Here is the input.
Amino acid sequence: MTRRMMLVAIGSLTAMLLLSLSSLINNDNMVASMFELQGWTLLLVQAILLASAAVGASFAALFKANSFVTAGCTIRVTKAPIGSDLWLA
Here is the structure.
């Protein structure tokens, strides 16, 4: 779980940084309503908003997992073979 969330965090952060390099991402387009934009401009603005939301969500999940790891907890996997534990590390 933690590895997947780390990959999501890295991927969404990379996407956000790459999308922000576009000249279509500027203050005027970011504050405009989605009904005022069209075409590539709308697509890029929506994509950077989605990427920034994914960055926030993945880092929130990683922070929560970190609190379990520092406390030394394990999570019992219900559908795994009997006697196996999933360590969040």
In short: The chain has a mean pLDDT of 82.
